[in-house]
Design a protein that fits this description.
single chain, alpha+beta, Beta-Lactamase, Helix Hairpins, 4 domains, 5-stranded antiparallel beta sheet, 17 strands, extended
């Protein structure tokens, strides 16, 4: 054995209660952290009551006093879970004892077989002995893992800095902004270094100094945001705000499409202004031409107003639908961080459930927008194949029975003729019908029914999804097929969606060579009929 680690046997150890006042000893026993004290010969001279609570299979504290640190490690090894921490017992003892002599005081996590995680810290005492602290950090480690999973799944670039402005956690999107492949490369870097690295990687050299100054300004205020456009034309909404523990939370959101829409509308406004000026000059040529040009200017004004109204509606709707789940994700993530040491399992489950719901709502809306964008741009590729319409309805029932059951709703598949084969792209077809069934379940009241039916109509197949919800006025049927429009059935219930489901269904129907028909009256539910070509 290494001479530096050799122990000397110098007689019975002196107990801590021989040199410490009883009141202090009592205080040590009330702590929720396990404290063990070893003398210079590595013999245990004190263990508080919480140590026995953490390691329940060990002998009593009185029986452990006088045992060497090596003996304690051997006893404790029986509770360590299988994995990297459960190494060969001699190797485990050597690595743990080495931390006493070689300054390896960094905390060490011990995963126990019952699922708990114990953090071990060692410190040297002035008398040449050691103090070893044992803390149950299970909840904190699990909360950190949940937070790490949440930001990993996010499409935004997330970063967390501690109170000393050092990066402690980020996702791959944030690492990519810095030009590195893994978030682990950035951990421990200071904020100033990160800003310089991002500027070198994505900011045009001519804008570098100005951007760095604005970035530092934003980092000094309690909460702020700014939009930045990088060299390749991508635009980000960058938000930076203070956390409860003195650190900072930074989020980069890709807003390229919105930024381009703003620029296009501004260009249109400039073109309209130039057109008005040209029309004003031309008015002098003749009265008839002046009247014509005045009428044209009025129509252009109406077009500009309609474009401005569309822009405001789009931005207002997108702002609400994006901010609502994002606020839930960020807000409850903050709560998990703030309450990490005191939150109950029920609270953690509740907050993580709300984060999960917000993320799913956001993902559903983004998927709908992406599908509509692909269809509009003619980039939605179809892989047609024959599918049995009747079987697909039973698959839909199985898929949505869980959500329907939560509201005591019964999904009924009516009798369908055999051999109802449709010629469709499977992914597009499932998206189309899934949106209709999801819509029906959302708007059907508790205890209601949703009917699914398929029938032949000449050389085509008709598939219907009918609910017995509150219905929609006939005058609203055309309107609810437009983007971000919802019927009178639930205009205030934003959990039902952003008003894109029926728009996407109509677009996919037309892409597949089919049609969508809506039938409804107030109080009589809504029936959606999809007609598709057969093979």
């Amino acid at each position: 054995m290494n001479a530096a680690l050799t122990r000397a046997d110098r007689g019975p150890p002196v107990g801590l209660d021989d040199i410490v006042a009883p009141s202090v000893m009592e205080a040590l026993h009330t702590l929720r952290v396990a404290i063990t004290v070893f003398d210079a010969d590595e013999r245990l001279i004190f263990a508080n009551e919480h140590f026995g609570y953490l390691f329940r299979s060990l002998p009593s504290r009185d029986a452990l006093v006088g045992r060497h640190y090596e003996d304690i490690i051997r006893l404790e090894a029986g509770e360590i879970a299988d994995g990297p921490a459960r190494q060969d017992i001699d190797d485990l003892i050597a690595s743990r004892r080495a931390s006493l002599f070689h300054g390896g005081y960094a905390p060490r996590d011990l995963p126990l077989s019952d699922g708990r995680i114990i953090e071990v810290k060692t410190r040297r005492t002035p008398s040449g002995g050691w103090i070893v602290l044992w803390s149950d950090v299970t909840s904190a480690r699990h909360n950190l893992e949940h937070l790490h999973t949440a930001i990993t799944l996010s499409a935004d670039a997330f970063a967390f800095y501690d109170r000393y402005d050092r990066l402690t956690l980020c996702n791959e999107e944030y690492a990519a902004l810095n030009g590195v492949a893994s978030p682990d490369v950035l951990k421990g870097y200071g904020f100033n270094d990160i800003v310089e690295q991002i500027a070198d990687h994505i900011i045009a050299p001519s804008d570098r100094t100005t951007w760095i100054e604005k970035r530092h300004e934003l980092h000094r205020v309690p909460a702020g945001a700014m939009t930045m456009e990088i060299a390749d034309g991508t635009a980000y909404l960058m938000r930076d705000r203070a956390a409860a523990d003195g650190g900072r939370i930074v989020v980069f959101t890709d807003v390229t499409e919105h930024h381009r829409a703003e620029k296009a509308l501004a260009e249109q406004a400039r073109a309209l202004a130039a057109t008005r000026q040209a029309l004003a000059v031309s008015k002098a040529h003749s009265v008839a031409q002046a009247n014509y040009l005045a009428d044209l200017a009025t129509k252009l004004d109406q077009t500009a107003a309609a474009a401005d109204s569309t822009k405001k509606t789009l931005l207002r709707t997108m702002s609400h639908e994006l901010k609502t789940p994002l606020n839930a994700i960020i807000g409850f993530s903050d709560l998990l961080g703030t309450l990490a040491d005191s939150a109950s399992p029920d609270q953690i489950r509740e907050y993580s459930g709300l984060i999960h719901t917000g993320g799913n709502n956001l993902l559903r809306m983004l998927n709908q927008i992406m599908d509509l964008t692909k269809i509009s741009a003619g980039r939605y590729e179809l892989n047609r194949q024959p599918l049995d319409a009747g079987l697909s309805l039973w698959s839909l029932k199985d898929r949505y029975d869980g959500a329907a059951g939560d509201k005591a709703i019964e999904i009924v598949v009516d009798d369908c003729a055999n051999g109802l084969v449709v010629d469709v792209d499977e992914t597009a077809y499932n998206t189309l019908l899934g949106n209709l069934v999801d819509n029906a379940v959302n708007f059907t009241p508790k205890g209601g029914r949703v009917h699914l039916h398929a029938a032949r109509d000449g050389d085509r197949v008709c598939i219907s999804v009918a609910d017995n919800g509150p219905g929609v006025a006939e005058t609203d049927l055309a309107r609810i097929l437009e983007p971000f429009e919802q019927g009178g059935r639930s205009t205030t219930d934003h959990s039902a969606g952003a008003g894109l489901g029926l728009t996407l269904v109509k677009a996919i129907c037309e892409l597949l060579g089919g049609t969508l028909t809506l039938q409804s009256k107030p109080g009589e539910g809504l029936t959606a009929i999809v007609t598709l070509p057969t093979k």
